[in-house]
Amino acid sequence: MKKNNFKITFLFFSLIFINFQTIVFSEIMLLTGCKNLNDGFIKNEYILDFEKSLMTRNYVYDTKTYKKHRITDLSIKKENTLEKFLYMDKDLIFTDKVGYPQFYTQLVFEKNNPMINIKTVINGEEAISKISTCSKVEIYEKES
Q1: Alpha helix stretches (DSSP H) within the chain
Q2: Element housing 60 (H / E)
Q3: In 10 A of CB 16, how many CB atoms?
Q4: Is the previous residue joined to 114 through a cis bond, with omega within 30 degrees of 0?
Q5: Which of 44, 60, 75, 86 is in the most buried spot, having the most CB atoms within 10 Å?
Q6: Whole-model pTM?
Q7: Which residues contact residue 75 at a Cβ distance below 8 angstroms, ignoring those fewer than 6 apart?
Q8: For residue 112, is it left (φ>0), alpha (ψ between -120 and 50) or beta?
Q9: pLDDT in tens, 2-48
């Protein structure tokens, strides 16, 4: 009888332990009210989903900036959403490279930091400069 109770107890605790292991925590970092150094926006926000390794940027140009960019590029939209893949290297969060191999750029984020930087690499020479500062940074943990 004691052996049977031990098996039931072992099975019960094993199931509880396995269920706790299947709970997934993921983080989403939301940067809102981002002011760009060069352009004006009515809305400019970044959503970094670390579980999906995806950055989503939602923005709406102000009229002056929209007209400035529209002169040189007719495909510019006043309101747009962009998605880019993310990866982490040490304490920094990078978007995927655009324009690789001789010349490329990528956005650089830090957790809980309102500054957004851009990394530019030309023929192996790299530079990082600030492009935007956000008024609010929030980190959400979702459980599934």
Answers
A1: 2-21, 63-72
A2: strand 54-61
A3: 10
A4: no
A5: 44
A6: 0.77
A7: none
A8: left
A9: 555 666 666 555 555 555 444 445 789 999 999 998 899 999 999 99
